[in-house]
Amino acid sequence: MSEHSCCTPPGPISIEDSGRRVDRRGFLSAAVGLGLVTFGASGCANSSPATGASPTSSAPPGAPQEWSGTNVVLLGTGGGPIPTAGRHMTSQAVIVDGTTYIVDCGSGVVGQIVASNIAYESIATVFLTHLHTDHISDYFPLVAFGRKIGPQPGFSQNIEVFGPGRAGAFPSGSPQPGVQLVNPSNPTTGTLDLHNGLLDAYAYSVNGMYIASPTGPDIRDVVRVQDITLPVNVVANATDLVAPIMEPFAVYEDDKVKVTAILVDHPVVFPA
Q: Which of 3, 4, 82, 134 is the most exposed place for a label (fewest CB within 10 A)?
């Protein structure tokens, strides 16, 4: 399936208990989403042509359009942190009655959103399935460029971001013994750590343009980040039990979607 095309499931997505551990590839074959997050929405998903526009759209490339029903737009389908000429890295947009939910932010996601005629104003929530670079490399550009600057297009509301919390340890075999770790006081950062660290790394631009100023609202108020917490009855860890048999648990719900999550076995990362 090419990028920008849409999956067409028969109805709301659900995960059946198979009585076994779920690996990442098997999970992908059964659910909309990647790794950590799955969506349930009323109705069927619409199919779209390769341009990313809906079948009834006449909007030119880059011009936001009206979306109806449930649509899944594959913004990037390239696997692994290896750039290729024909595919962008992992990201999907789930659009339900005009509200957009972004799943992962691989390289190229900002341009792909525009090319797919998705309005930044429609983005409500961002989900990160795991913290490998090919799923998060354009996270900060997504949220920074979405913050409105004067009359320019941007988020029409405060957005929420959900992603894995701190792992607490590394999966077996990673990193190599004896290496000097980056950020040794907190080497297994979570999503909130990622967000705050990026604000620090981009301090010059953030302080000059993206905090409260005449150009727009404070980005720290616009973007609200939460680490996903595993249910208390789920026993899992980074070293020897990354994806136990478990029921999907609720992560997010609004008047259009309910988002659930389940751990999957995706080396070498935890949680995913």
A: 82
97: left (phi over 0), alpha (psi -120 to 50) or beta: left
Q: Rounded CA gap, 68 and 141, in Å? A: 27
For residue 49, what are its two tokens? 């042509």
Q: How far is 262 from 272, CA to CA, in rounded Å?
A: 8
130-142 pLDDT, tens digit per residue, is 999 999 999 999 9
* pTM, full prediction: 0.80
CA 103 to chain centre: 3
Q: In this structure, what token pair is assigned to residue 93?
A: 């947009």
Contacts of 60 (CB under 8 A, 6+ apart): none
Burial (Cβ within 10 Å: 0-12, 13-18, ≥19) of residue 199: buried
DSSP E strands, the chain: 37-41, 45-46, 70-76, 91-96, 99-103, 123-127, 159-164, 223-228, 249-253, 257-261
Q: Residue type at 122? A: S
Q: How far is residue 66's CA from residue 43's CA, in Å, rounded to a whole number?
A: 18
Task: Extract the tokens encoding 86.
Answer: 């024909």
pLDDT of residue 59: 65
